[in-house]
Design the sequence.
C-alpha cells in the first residue's frame, strides 16, 4: 500500500514539472509566469506530490525514501519522449535504466 503513495507522488511530481515547463514556455520565465494558470496547476501538483510523499517518507529510512523520488526524473524523461517527441540518446536511456535499477536496489531487502 505504501508504494501507492510513492507512485502517486512520482506521477504528480512529474506532472508538475511538465506543466511548469509548458507554462513558462507560454508565459516566459519572469515573475509573470507565477500567474499563468498552467504554472499554477504545476505548483499545485508539486504540493499534492509532497502530501503523498510524506507517508512514504515516514515508513522508510531517509536514505531509501529520498532517492526513490528520483523516479520522477525517469517519468519526466519518458513523458517528454512519448508526449512531446523529445529524442533521448543511448546515454540518456542508460541513465534512465541506472536510476530505475538504483531505486530498486535501495528498496531491496
Sequence:
Amino acid at each position: 500500500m505504501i508504494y501507492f503513495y510513492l507512485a502517486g507522488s512520482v506521477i504528480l511530481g512529474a506532472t508538475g514539472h511538465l506543466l511548469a515547463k509548458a507554462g513558462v514556455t507560454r508565459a516566459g520565465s519572469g515573475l509573470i509566469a507565477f500567474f499563468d494558470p498552467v504554472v499554477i496547476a504545476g505548483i499545485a501538483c508539486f504540493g499534492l506530490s509532497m502530501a503523498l510523499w510524506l507517508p512514504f517518507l515516514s515508513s522508510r529510512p531517509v536514505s531509501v525514501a529520498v532517492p526513490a523520488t528520483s523516479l520522477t526524473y525517469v517519468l519526466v524523461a519518458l513523458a517528454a519522449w512519448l508526449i512531446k517527441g523529445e529524442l533521448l540518446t543511448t546515454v540518456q536511456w542508460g541513465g534512465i535504466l541506472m536510476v530505475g535499477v538504483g531505486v530498486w536496489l535501495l528498496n531491496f531487502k
Summary: The chain has a mean pLDDT of 93. The chain has one domain: 2-107. The helical segments are 2-27, 37-59, 62-68, 71-82, 90-107. The two ends are 17 Å apart (CA to CA).
